[in-house]
Amino acid sequence: MTQRNAVVLAAGLGTRMKSRRHKVVHEVCGQPMIRHVVDHLKASQVDRIVVVVGHLAEQVRAVLGDEVEYVFQERALGTGHAVLQTAPLLEGTEGQTLVVCGDTPLIRPETFQRLADVQKMTGAAAAVLTAVVDHPEGYGRIVRDGDQIRAIVEEKDADEQIRAIREVNAGTYCFDTEQLFAAVRRLDNGNGQGEYYLTDCAEILQKDGRRVTPVLLEDAGEMAGVNDRVQLAAVEESMRRRILEYWMREGVTVVDPRSTYVDSDVVIGRDTVIFPGTWLQAGTRIGEDCRIGPAARLSASVVEDGVQVEQSVVLGSTLRSGCTVGPFAYVRPGSDVGPGAKIGDFVEVKNAVIGAGTKAAHLTYIGDADVGEGVVLGCGTITVNYDGVQKHRTRIGDRTFVGCNSNLVAPLTVGADAYVAAGSTITEDVPDGAMAIARERQINKEGYTAKLQHKLRGRRMKSEESRES
């Protein structure tokens, strides 16, 4: 039985990143770049994926877990040597083996599929992804013999004539599995780097009378790899543009793509408008007819239809249909804002359930609370949830009105259809339909201002006499 394998090369040191993190775990549009590579391979009907790891292998394993297999390259002796480490797992199997780099997240699933299809249809020992570029510096050059590849020459080993070639190696291959391992076992390291180049397989196979076929990329930008932070930013920009173009074609309005950031796994419904300065982070789902932004950040959150979020942060929460958030609101993890509810300016919600139609218009903190439907929380309302040791919950019944500048000291239950007078600090439960007032009695001291001013004048005169003496 034939199978399609993939070998992902992820054993490089990545020294130019100048990071304690493995190069391939740096994120591109919300996902580690190797996560993109593996997901795109899976989408191209690969049956088995083997990742070659080395330095910082544990970081790669933390990203991919048990969904792939691993082999360890103890010494970085080149790409051919890296592939050879997979022989105990793949050698002797029938079918195809894709070889890809873990730092090239822009190669699309359909490109992997086309490469594999060409190798299979032509019966070639290998199909090599290539691109024609204006500035080929740094890439291996494709030396052709008609419509076949005679050799792939690394730039450091190339003469001036070969360096003038503009068709370059994209670093992605599809081999007949049997021919791959027959070739890599014959590699030598007689080159300027003293490494075993996988690219030398092309010349070995060609001399054996085998076919090595180029597959030209339609978009040369797909082959972009990441070696430093500058290239990381460039790849991020390319993927971000690709993501935004997809959603705009799916019926989403993006007012200014240059200032809008949408991670790769985000889902957005039709007729939603994304305003400038918005960042939709990993795990976020946006419904239809929403208005998000300007200057909004949503992460790992579910937003139902018809929601508005303006100049606010929403993390790990659910916003139900028709509710509004912002401007300048902060919805923290574990919150559920009900249908038609309003979370207004400078309101913070944390681990709280907000009922349908409830309004917290401004300057309010709702933490560890269950708030019913149709509740009005006046300006300055605070659920006092922390006693210095542990958190406690506040429960507020339907249609209750809480006046401005009120403290609700948890654990506390305020019943339905109740009133809390403005300026109150409530420490005991409030029954349904009751009104709670918890204020110090007001005292007016007549003539106090004149007495105070007389006392202050006396102090100033004594101070001046003291300085003169």
Automatic annotation (TrEMBL):
Acetyl-CoA binds at residues 385-386, 422, 439. SUPFAM superfamilies: Nucleotide-diphospho-sugar transferases, Trimeric LpxA-like enzymes. Its EC number is 2.7.7.23, 2.3.1.157. One of its GO terms (molecular function) is UDP-N-acetylglucosamine diphosphorylase activity. The active site is at 362 (proton acceptor). The keyword Ribosomal protein does not apply. Keywords: Acyltransferase, Cell shape, Cell wall biogenesis/degradation, Cytoplasm, Magnesium, Metal-binding, Multifunctional enzyme, Nucleotidyltransferase, Peptidoglycan synthesis, Repeat, Transferase. Residues 251-469 are annotated as: N-acetyltransferase. Pathway: Bacterial outer membrane biogenesis; LPS lipid A biosynthesis; Nucleotide-sugar biosynthesis; UDP-N-acetyl-alpha-D-glucosamine biosynthesis; UDP-N-acetyl-alpha-D-glucosamine from N-acetyl-alpha-D-glucosamine 1-phosphate: step 1/1; Nucleotide-sugar biosynthesis; UDP-N-acetyl-alpha-D-glucosamine biosynthesis; N-acetyl-alpha-D-glucosamine 1-phosphate from alpha-D-glucosamine 6-phosphate (route II): step 2/2. It is found in: Cytoplasm. CDD domains: GT2_GlmU_N_bac (cd02540), LbH_GlmU_C (cd03353). It catalyses: alpha-D-glucosamine 1-phosphate + acetyl-CoA = N-acetyl-alpha-D-glucosamine 1-phosphate + CoA + H(+); N-acetyl-alpha-D-glucosamine 1-phosphate + UTP + H(+) = UDP-N-acetyl-alpha-D-glucosamine + diphosphate. Mg(2+) binds at residues 103, 227. Residues 230-250 are annotated as: Linker. Residues 6-139 form the MobA-like NTP transferase domain. Its cofactor is Mg(2+). One of its GO terms (cellular component) is cytoplasm. One of its GO terms (biological process) is peptidoglycan biosynthetic process. Signal peptide: none annotated. UDP-N-acetyl-alpha-D-glucosamine binds at residues 9-12, 23, 73, 78-79, 140, 154, 169, 227, 332, 350, 365. The keyword Transmembrane does not apply. Homotrimer. Catalyzes the last two sequential reactions in the de novo biosynthetic pathway for UDP-N-acetylglucosamine (UDP-GlcNAc). The C-terminal domain catalyzes the transfer of acetyl group from acetyl coenzyme A to glucosamine-1-phosphate (GlcN-1-P) to produce N-acetylglucosamine-1-phosphate (GlcNAc-1-P), which is converted into UDP-GlcNAc by the transfer of uridine 5-monophosphate (from uridine 5-triphosphate), a reaction catalyzed by the N-terminal domain. In the N-terminal section; belongs to the N-acetylglucosamine-1-phosphate uridyltransferase family. In the C-terminal section; belongs to the transferase hexapeptide repeat family. NCBIfam families: glmU, PRK14354.1. This is Bifunctional protein GlmU. It comes from Kyrpidia tusciae (strain DSM 2912 / NBRC 15312 / T2) (Bacillus tusciae).
